Amino acid sequence: LRGCAPSAASAGSAETMLRCEGAAFSRDGAPILSDVSLLVPQGAKVALVGRSGAGKSTLLSLMAGMEEPCAGRLCSPAGGCGRLAQARWRDRVSFVPQNAAVLAASIRDNVALYRPCASDGQVRRALEQVGLGDLLDGLPDGLDTVVGRGGRALSGGQAQRLALARALVDPDRDVLFLDEPTASVDLWTEAEMAPALLRAMEGRTVVMATHRLSWLEHFDQVVVLEAGRVVAQGAPGSLAGILGGVCAPEGLAGAAAEHLSLRGALEGRCGDGRQA
Question: The pTM is what?
Fold first, then answer.
């Protein structure tokens, strides 16, 4: 993967964008997160890693203000402490899930979902940034093309890039949460999506759940979750000894092979003249 370098943000040199203090969460009586504490500096890129069921998606939901912790608290400059779900915080947040929702609506309305006042120029620019400019140019109805149920079908990669365009079209949303946005696509599609993801991360505070070792070089901090608890956190290089076991089911060898495969896929896409 090639793209933006990790930011220089650190807990000691940047304003805190988000702070978790002993956060816990349960659903239907079953504990999912326990005593989670971490700090996200403004402008930092933080990766959440862990095996399936470790609590990554739930932690992202709490941090984005979509759910409230059962114990502990989360604090941000915009939302204060205790209730991140208030409107001021949510107005700064963009959330891209594993499987992006495509509305049965025009491409324009899909991209401008969180910013209805966006101009056609802003929508088009966001689509071009995520690599959907060529697709748009090939559609007779352009931004008026209806997608989703009953409309034009989009591939998994196109749907994910559409969700990224939503995040890009609103410059006021400077906090980006990504929940394994490439988990449901193959390596070739991920290689096509990678430049768009990296562009979406530029200039924003980012928290991304991922199981791909190859993404971690773009992050300042990695938080390792196991059974709902933070078991390690630090710079990617300082955690190299344990990341292989949680980023790929085959262990370090499998993670390294995946890393090389994704690099090769991306270089192949860029090297043969095709736009990634």
Answer: 0.80
